[in-house]
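Entry 14: structure prediction run for AAA+ ATPase domain-containing protein. Input pasted below.
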Amino acid sequence: MNYWIVSGDIKKWKSEFAMTDPSFQTWIDWKEPINYSCYTKSKKPKLKGNVKNLAVGDVVLIYAKGRKVVIGEGEITSIANNQNSIAPGDYVTITPRVVFNAPIKIEDIIGNRSVTPFQNGFGEIHKTEYKNYKRAMALSGAKVVSNFNKSNLYDSVYLPKVTIDKILNLLNRKKNIILQGPPGVGKTYLAKKIIEYLTDKNNFTFVQFHQSYSYEDFIMGYKPTESGGFELQEGKFYVACNEAKKLQKIEGKNIAPYVFVIDEINRGNISKVFGELLMLIENNYRETSITLANQKEFYVPNNLYLIGLMNTADRSLAMIDYALRRRFSFVTIPSVFEGIETSDFGNWDTYDKGDDKQKKFAQFLKAEQLDEDYAKNLIKEIISLNNTIKEELGEGFVIGHSYFCNLEEDNLPVSKNRLVEVIEFEIAPLLEEYWFDNLERANELKDNLLNALK
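Run finished. Output tokens:
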């Protein structure tokens, strides 16, 4: 990942957004992607500086020229298909990540360095300068305003748009969904991105179930105090429902959802944890009050959304409670490797022009710096391994793509040594667990992965 800075003109931005987002009047209104032409607008158009060096996923700071401040931060989400032959009509698309109520002075980021390089193109921001930017943001107390839209959601996860739309539609209709899948497909990451899309960063609660998790932890119960007595304490879900109610109605309008995420939802004793509230989470019974054991009236508000996360490879657990299953929609999250053919290995470089699955796979290889031949050979072997796992164990046990995420250092291709570490210390132990009664088979599959790197 590289860091860039580009000059923004508020008048030109207003013109750009006149049709697509007429609400844009000031910098703080930036919430939709902005297109930057790759060429200067002149009688003899010239390619803007550094356009050929840009990549999807790079971070771009927006410099408000007239005010000499940085007003926000975006991410490059698309660029010309062929950067070696960029045409005057090609664009770079920058999608907002954060916008500041209190902008950052440019000198606090680049010091006395000239601003000329990024007034007619994309100027490079060195890592130390990007750290200055982060430090200045913290010291100034600048409030970060999230502007995470559906385009951000599409671009930030390795899932086809149709799958993301299905998840959002189910969540809107059912109120309760469970994201299930094998280890490493990004279930937790997806839940976090859904939160960013749906609501403010403060309007969510994240809990993890375990075998000792109880109704007292979740709803309400008496807990021991330091003085040796007991007092009634509100549980996580009870508090979350009350927070959601505060957001629920202002002038009679729903203004914000509240998201409650339960990791490892199948590890808890569902009947014990939910108690009488199991009925109230149903979308048909939202806003219906009941009297709790402590004689308090309670209901689950309409604007509270439940997202459960479940690992399908955990064989130590019994089937999920049927009463809970009826009240949730279940969505299986596939690996980015799903649907990618090893026989098509030679054509992977053209996948960025293929179907939605192929484009996501191409985005994965490029964004995670896995486009070197040795890394591609390993990914090819992982896909073959997953086919073997499906045949011998089932689809719920395949290897997910997150094992290969965030491995790069200093924006360089992922090294062979780092990939060997992933195989030896992350994937191999999982294979040994899968084939616990046939370690020879597990070692054979591990060796196939290691040999792919040679």
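Notes: The chain has three domains: 3-147, 152-332, 342-452. Will compare against the previous run tomorrow.
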